Amino acid sequence: MPFDIKSFLSILANQKWYKGQIISVYEVPPQKARFASLTPPLPRKIESYLTAKDIQLYSHQAEVIRKVREGKNVVLTTATASGKSLAFILPVLEKFCYDKNATALFLYPMKALSYDQLKSLYDMEREMGLAFNIAVYDGDTPKKERGRIRGQSRLILSNPHAFHQYLGWHRLWERFFRNLKFIVIDEAHWYRGIYGSNVALLIRRLRRILRYYGSDPQFILASATMADPVEHANKLVGKQFELVDDDGSAHGKKTYVLWDTGANPSRSEHQQAADLFAHCVASGMQTLCFTVSRKMAELTALWAGEEVPGIAPYRAGYLPEERRALEKDLKEGRLRGIASTNALELGVDIGGLDAVVISGWPGMVASFRQQSGRAGRSGQDALVIQIFFNGPLESFLLKNPSFIFANPSEQAIITLDNDYILKNHLQCAAEELPLEKKDEEWFGAGYIEAVKSLIKEDSIHLVTDYTGIRQKAFRRSKKYAYNGKNAARKFNLSSFEDGEVKLICDDDVLEVLSRRQAIMEAHPGAIYLHQAEPYRVKEFNLDEGVIVVEPAKNNLYTTTLSRTDIMVNKVTRVEKHVRYNLYLGRVSVNEQVYGYMLKTYDKVISHCDLDGIPPVKIDTVAAWIQIMDLKGIPGDLEGGLHAAEHALIAVTPLLAMCDHWDVGGVSIVSGYGGKPAIYIYDGFPGGIGIAERLYSHFGDLAKQAYELVKECDCKDGCPRCVMSYKCGNNNEPLDKHCSIKILELIAGKN
User: Fold this and answer.
1) Nearest residue to 741 (alpha-carbon basis) of 665, 613, 637, 661
2) pLDDT, position 49
3) Does the CA dihedral 485-491-496-499 come out positive or negative?
4) Distance of CA 585 to the CA centre of its chain
5) Is the N or C terminus of the chain more exposed, i.e. has fewer CB atoms within 10 Å?
6) What's the pTM value of the predicted model, to 2 decimals?
7) For residues 680 and 566, is the Cβ–Cβ distance under 8 A?
8) Rounded to whole angstroms, how far apart are CA atoms 467 and 60?
């Protein structure tokens, strides 16, 4: 890279907008490549291609191929730009060379990734002199092409949303399914939460159909790093996996700069991002700036472009040909900088950049590593500037950067026990092939009860060869089919089926909210943030599932006022400690919105009451602390519990790949068993596994929350430690000093 980092930082320190925002600088030394050979070698045509391209196999690529040859299922977790795609493509092509009927399915979380990979595969196919009839098959595939692809293609690229719809037509796929030898799932960390849980059951439906056609393919998963990739792969697919994570690829030195926007409160965090972006480009670095929203991608490119030429925005919403043109211009050097949403986080090929500016913490360590990995992809030295905004989690990471650089990424959360999700997929499965008792092996311990429930609801019916009364018992010899048509169309993989609410602006659907999210965040009069852009709610109609919004002023926002009641229905696990007990169990939560406050960032403009808002009632899973001994805990106990609850929720994303909106919390002085208690619960009916993850690592969670509050420089609590902008009680009461003692107790610090 034709610049010196010390000189760059020295010049940066003399800019008029620099006020000491650089908190720390970290360097990751360069790494030389480690190569490996294969015995026996790859087929001649593949070897000739690699030789012509001057490609040697990295050690991790060779290890994946060896394990695949042994019949193993493999999960590969190495750095961005380490050649993960080649690692899973080569064993598939090797199989194709020896088995002329073999087929393979590649699943990507986004259409753009499928088409990006398609071009590379076309080139490989042509240069190897092979013919695999590679094709993308998704909602954009012309209908006239679909029959030919199903009948002739050996390698099909698609996405889970598409295959969710296709499984009901599996008989059209018989040729492809009978010969399916591999299923590759790229960006596997993307499958988490509701989406991941749905995809996990979708894959079980697919495997069930494949067994019907006599096939049992190997799985290869490629992923960003996470706390336990083997556990995640097992939950996602339902098979045993072997891990390959020893990265043998080469990379140059990478310098990380942590930037605290709070050191210069006179200039907004977004303006500071534009300043840094422009400064990097002006210094000769080809730079990608990640922003928090589509609007900020446009504005950041505009502001930076006023300082230096060669900058453009990039975001979802552009036409595909516009995005491809921008990607090509960046890759070929005609553009010097792009401001983008996280649309460029995943593996679309844009070449090797010199620098990445990340405007705002991207939510997870895994996302940070994906985004920072966009710099230095060609092996050159690289610079990453992480800009931190004002918030508890960002404050914690600024003071504890080891969680970014030294710790493993968060764990992707998947649950197979959610009755709501399971019953949706069982209706689809019953339409695909009649359900039998033996199908319990695919759908787990809750299968029998879920089927009985669907029988009672008349969602599935007994398949009989005679006319008579339908049997209600689910017996070994009975089969049950779906009592309708097109079950897969009745729900999508990204949310629950019931209670979806569309958020509409100017006749365009901005997003689809759950009923709970709509009530809690998009009630009448609310300012709702969509991709960090504010919209005011004009019409609120839950019965029709529609909320109409209009753009709002940037300096306005609302805080919902609500009451939360919680009742424990069943304790499933408990740990007893000397001064407190830790529980996991099923709970009923009742949240009632009764008003909101309209605010700017420095004052409250008005208090507004709300009448007639229906309560949100969910049966979910919670982890909670029951404090048995209050000795040494001074101050306002109610305020201390409340502040500790906020801190625990703030650091939850460090343990689980989730947003803090995915969980709720409540603290009660006279809670479980009449003792002080803090509850953290999944914000989804039935739970999606977050509470279980927190229960298993509550000590770590409490230590991080303790450090967050203890290390904050404020006197009585602030937005960087114990205040929460989503608090339904307007952050009242809060007692920072009492919360420190409570967290100290739970964390075992005293």
Assistant:
1) 637
2) 95
3) negative
4) 25
5) C
6) 0.87
7) no
8) 60
Q: How far is CA 428 from CA 165, 280, 485, 700, in A?
A: 9, 52, 9, 40
What is the CA angle 58-60-64, rounded to 5? 120
Domain boundaries, the chain: 5-29+251-405, 44-244, 419-490, 564-746
Q: What confidence tens digit (pLDDT) does each residue in 180-199 have? A: 999 999 999 989 988 999 99
Q: How far apart are CA 81 and CA 373, in angstroms?
A: 7
Task: Render pLDDT for 541-590 as a digit per residue (tens, 0 to 9).
Answer: 998 899 999 999 877 888 899 999 999 999 999 999 999 999 999 999 99
Neighbour tally for 671: CB within 10 Å: 20
CA nearest to 374, candidates 411, 331, 406, 333: 331
C-beta atoms surrounding 471 within 10 Å = 14
Query: Considering only the top CATH level, what class is 5-29+251-405?
Result: alpha beta
Report which residue type is found at 536: R
Candidates 224, 217, 208, 214; CA nearest to 184 is: 217
Q: How many Cβ atoms sit within 10 Å of the Cβ of residue 629?
A: 12
Amino acid at 213: Y
6 Cβ contact list (under 8 Å, min separation 6): none
Compute how many other C-beta atoms are within 10 angstroms of the C-beta atom of residue 67: 20
The answer to whether domain 5-29+251-405 and domain 44-244 are alike in fold is yes
Q: How far apart are CA 306 and CA 228, in angstroms?
A: 45
Note if the bond before 40 is cis, omega within 30 degrees: yes
* SS (HEC) of 449-504: HHHHHHHHCCCEEECCCCCCCCCCCCCCCCCEEECCCCHHHHCCCCCCCCCCEEEE
CB 352 within 8 A of CB 376: yes
Q: Per-residue pLDDT averaged across 126-145, rounded?
A: 92
φ, ψ at 571 (rounded to 5°) = -90, 125
Could you tell me the CATH superfamily of domain 44-244?
Answer: P-loop containing nucleotide triphosphate hydrolases (3.40.50.300)
**Rounded CA gap, 257 and 375, in Å?**
13
Name, in order, each residue with C-beta under 8 angstroms of 436's C-beta and a sequence gap of 6 or more: 476, 478, 479
Residue in the structure block whose two tokens are 């589509």? 294
